[in-house]
Design a protein that fits this description.
By secondary structure, this protein is an alpha/beta fold. The chain contains 13 helices and eleven strands. It has two domains: 25-147 and 235-275, Bacterial extracellular solute-binding protein, family 7 (D-Maltodextrin-Binding Protein, domain 2, 3-Layer(aba) Sandwich), CATH 3.40.190; 152-233 and 279-334, D-Maltodextrin-Binding Protein, domain 2 (3-Layer(aba) Sandwich), CATH 3.40.190. Helix 7 (175-182) links the parallel strand 6 and strand 7 (186-189).
C-alpha cells in the first residue's frame, strides 16, 4: 500500500509540474508572407525552432507561411487587432497609413550592404525611431532581417546610369518608381506574375524582381541576359512586429530571446544569400550567357543622390517620415556613404 501511495503521489506531482509548465507556455501566432521553401522562409523556420529551444518551451510559435491567414497587406492590422499576435512581413504594405513605413521597409539607394541597414537599427537610433512609429498603431518592432541588394535584370545592357534612359521595366508602386523616373527610366507597375509574358513580348525591357539567386530560381535569366550585380537600388527589409499588449505581457527573458533570435536570423539569411548569389555568379555567364554589371562608385553615388532627393519629397508627407529620413541621412553621413 505504501508503494502504491508513493507512486500515486509521484504521478500527481508530475501532473502538477506538467500542468504548471503548460500554464506558463505562451503561444505566439505569427504570419509571414514568405514561402517555407524560399531562402527567407527556411530561416524563419529556423527562427521558430531557435525561439522554442532557447525559451525552454515557455514560448511556442505557430507560424503561418505564405500569408495563409490574411492577405500580406492585412497582417500588420491583424496583429494589432488580436487576430494574430505578430507580423513577420514588410512595412511597405503600410505606407498607406504613413509614408514613414517606407523607410523601415526599403531605403531605396540608401545602403550598399544589409549590415549597414541593420547597423542603423542597432547603432543609429533606428530601433527607437521605428517604435515611435509602430507604437502609435499598437505594435512593437522586435527586429528585422534582409538578404541583400536586389539585382535589376534586363534584355539590354545596364552598365550604368546612362543605360536607364528610356529603360522600360517592371517596378513596384511607390517610391522606387519615382526615383527611376527621375533618372530617365520608364517604370511600369505590374503584378509580379506578369513579368515573364511582358519580357517575352517586349512590353518591358527588364524587371525589378529579387536577388540574383532568386532571379535564377524564378527562371528570369532564361529571357533576360543582362543584370546588375552587386545590386544597388533596393534591399527589402522584413520585420518582426508584435501586438504591443502581447509584447508587454512577455517576460524580460522572453523579449530578449525573440530579439536575439531575430539577430541570429538576420545573420544566417545574409550568409545564405551570400553563398547562393556567389553560386549564381559562378554559373550564370557560362551556363546562361548572362552579363553581370557592377556599377561604378560614381554611378552608385548618382543613384543615391536621386534617391535622397525623392526621400526629401516623401519626408514632407508626415512628421514620422521626416524623422526617419533625417535619421537615415545622418547615419549615412556618419558611416561615410554620403558621397
Amino acid at each position: 500500500m505504501k508503494l502504491v501511495s508513493t507512486l500515486s503521489a509521484a504521478v500527481a506531482a508530475t501532473a502538477l509540474i506538467a500542468g504548471a509548465a503548460s500554464a506558463q507556455t505562451t503561444t505566439l501566432r505569427i504570419q509571414t508572407h514568405q514561402a517555407p521553401e524560399s531562402a527567407s522562409g527556411k530561416e524563419v523556420k529556423r527562427f521558430v525552432e531557435q525561439v522554442e529551444t532557447m525559451s525552454g518551451g515557455s514560448l511556442d510559435i505557430e507560424m503561418f507561411y505564405s500569408s495563409s491567414i490574411v492577405a500580406s497587406a492585412e497582417t500588420f492590422d491583424a496583429a494589432a487587432n488580436g487576430i494574430l499576435d505578430c507580423d513577420m512581413t514588410n512595412g511597405s504594405y503600410q505606407t498607406g497609413k504613413d509614408a514613414a513605413f517606407q523607410f523601415v521597409a526599403d531605403v531605396m539607394g540608401g545602403y550598399d550592404e544589409p549590415l549597414q541597414m541593420l547597423a542603423w537599427i542597432q547603432h543609429g537610433g533606428g530601433r527607437q525611431a521605428i517604435n515611435d512609429l509602430y507604437n502609435d498603431y499598437g505594435m512593437q518592432f522586435v527586429g528585422a532581417y534582409l538578404g541583400g541588394a536586389e539585382s535589376l535584370n534586363s534584355t539590354r545592357p545596364l552598365d550604368g546610369i546612362e543605360d536607364l534612359k528610356d529603360f522600360k521595366f517592371r517596378s513596384p508602386p511607390g517610391m522606387e518608381s519615382e526615383i527611376f523616373a527621375e533618372l530617365g527610366a520608364t517604370p511600369i507597375v505590374m503584378d509580379f506574375t506578369e513579368i515573364f509574358t511582358a519580357l517575352e513580348t517586349g512590353i518591358i525591357d527588364g524587371a525589378d524582381a529579387s536577388t540574383l539567386a532568386n532571379n535564377v530560381g524564378l527562371g528570369i535569366y532564361d529571357i533576360a541576359k543582362h543584370t546588375t550585380y552587386p545590386g544597388f537600388h533596393s534591399m527589402a527589409t522584413d520585420h518582426l512586429a508584435c501586438n504591443k499588449t502581447v509584447w508587454d505581457g512577455l517576460t524580460d527573458a522572453q523579449k530578449e530571446i525573440l530579439k536575439t533570435a531575430m539577430d541570429s536570423t538576420a545573420l544566417r539569411l545574409m550568409m545564405r544569400v551570400l553563398v547562393e548569389n556567389g553560386e549564381a555568379v559562378a554559373t550564370l555567364p557560362k551556363e546562361k550567357g548572362v552579363t553581370l554589371y557592377d556599377w561604378s562608385q560614381e554611378d552608385r553615388n548618382a543613384f543615391r543622390e536621386a534617391a535622397v532627393a525623392t526621400w526629401d519629397r516623401w519626408a514632407e508627407k508626415s512628421p514620422a517620415a521626416a524623422k526617419l529620413v533625417e535619421s537615415h541621412k545622418a547615419f549615412i553621413d556618419r558611416i561615410g556613404l554620403g558621397g
